[in-house]
## 1
Amino acid sequence: MSVFKLNDQAPDFKLTGLDRKEYHLADMLEKNDEKWFLLIYFRGSWCPACMEELDELEDTVGYFDKHNIQLLTITHDEKSSLEKMMKDHQFSFPVLLDEEFSFLKAYDVYYHGEDGPYEDHGEHAEPAYFLLNEHGKVLYQQRQTNPFGRPHAKELRKTISYIRKNLK
């Protein structure tokens, strides 16, 4: 696993979205027009807290568009479950599949496995958040070890606003 600090270059990734497009961070950065990236790893379509969070993000997606931030959500949930989720929720942001756990490992997302200290819906990743600038440098990161304590859309907007105002 790779652990990185703020202002480090984010690990590259190449994942396929439910929209069947390939999302390669290096390519997105190369074609970039000063866009920042907010990467959100979520547990799965089965998680009520995740669905609430994604619904909140969809309700405020205009903020991210207005501030030139590409929102990308990532999970290792089953593709068929995610397709149903997209049909039910009509999210406008991409949902990327981390089928091989490559993003999870590169970004050191916590995985609640068999060795977890408590039962929690079987094995799965926990929520994680990464804000990258237009060059792919990490401006913010947060990794959860359980489904609670995650920043809601309002807190993410406050964090982004604070970082933009205080960039060196």
Note: The helical segments are 25-30, 48-59, 61-66, 79-89, 102-106, 153-165.
## 2
Amino acid sequence: MSWDSRQRAMLAEMGLRLPASAAEVLAEPAPAPEPVAAAPVVAPPSSLAPVPVRPPAAPVPGPAAVTAPQSAVRVALAGLDLDALRAAVLDGRACGACEHRSHLFGRGALPRADWLVVTDAPTEADEAAGQLFVAEPGRLLDRMLLAAGQRLAGDAPSAFVAPLVPGRAPRGRPPQPHELDAGEAQLARLAELLQPRLVLAIGPLAARRLTGLPDPLGRLRGRVHAWRGLPLVVTYAPSYLLRSPADKSGAWDDLRLALASRPA
């Protein structure tokens, strides 16, 4: 459609500008698009609220933090002789916050021992008798040690048996970390006084604690470990062997390994 000058003037007055020709239409730049208003930000419903970012987990304590309680107990026990150490163990001072009703020190060769035999926590029967390894488990332990040329009593005792934890926990619960720390610190001072040439750990708790390995007892047997510079051999507890006599031959193999690994 063509527009005359009068029509163009009228449209211009209305604010509408028309090009004079098709060439002007092609040459004229297209009008800029009208700006679009940004959509308002709507807060999400409470059910769709963003999940808060969790802070990073606290780092796992390193060896220094884990052994700090044990180190503190060792400092407290340093310098104690056998009588003072026995008194500290029996009245629970060395165990700190232990909840055990009674404590057992151990029995055997004093003041020196060729073998230090470390067992798990005392049993209910031990606690009642006030002595480690009573009745049939004690008789079996005596026979095991005699087979290896060691004895806990008699004319020339050469071995000393002590518990890893000196008391039985209430309701038979497993020992707590601070109780294990205190127990090992007591054993360390006992070893300094007895000066044994070998450590024999009997039972899974004593074996895992002294080797520092979480493996089952069966996987810890058959090799010589080390504990505080001493050769360490692990074997079955007498109470277990009474229930599983077929493993007595394996216990004899462990005792032979102990004999072979003991320093001259």
Note: The chain has one domain: 67-261.
## 3
Amino acid sequence: MTDRPAAQHEELVLAERLGGVLLLTLHRPERLNAWTNALEDAYYGALLEADADPDVRAIVVTGAGRGFCAGADMEDLAGVGDATDEQIDRPHPRHLPLTLHTPLVAAVNGAAAGLGMVEALYADVRFASPRAVFLTAFAQRGLVAEYGMAWLLPRLVGHGRASDLLLSGRRVDGEEAARIGLVEHLVPADELVERAVAYAQGLATSCSPWSMATIKSQLLLDAERSFAESVRSADALMRESFRGSDIAEGVASFTERRPPVFAPLTKEI
């Protein structure tokens, strides 16, 4: 199934190419993949490399061992009260995954807590097993809803549920997460990564990279637009799509009953 040997980003993030899909695994299993600056640098570096590679058409992220990401490493967080703004700031914005052109799928296999839950929400689509556990934890650590979670969470589960999860920090298992719309796909634990990769491979082989990147941008920008503004923007993008090559290939592949062969994404959206 693997096209080439796994690569490693300082052993903190494992990368495996599976056709047009890149599988990234957060790799601090002894700490439930707790977030550190080094892990962030490795993960975000891998995302940027993938986004710049026209042969990577979808990305899947999961965690090694029993956790997805247990949030900020408490050993690092212990001294944060004495940190300067320069020490807190990072090279890349924390919402970097939202800015990718390439679809990002999260396969949440265990605890996704605090910053780990934020990273799961940054994915475009979430798969989870019943063993997954989501919790915000911020209020229980004397923190706030960090890195845009107060914007993201209500849009997924509604204001009331977002208030509940953020204020209480209570645990939400995979089944409840699926029921309230926090994840889109609930699958057995032993099929989680395989199913998430299969979904991503469907995107990679059947969908136009230009269309997916444009739709991702529409979803993000339209969250703050009026309906009329969304329609005007979509009309301009539709006209642009009519002048592109992908619509011809999409129609031809349908009428000829064959898989489409879309051009790689080579321009900014």
Note: DSSP finds eleven helices and eleven strands in the chain.
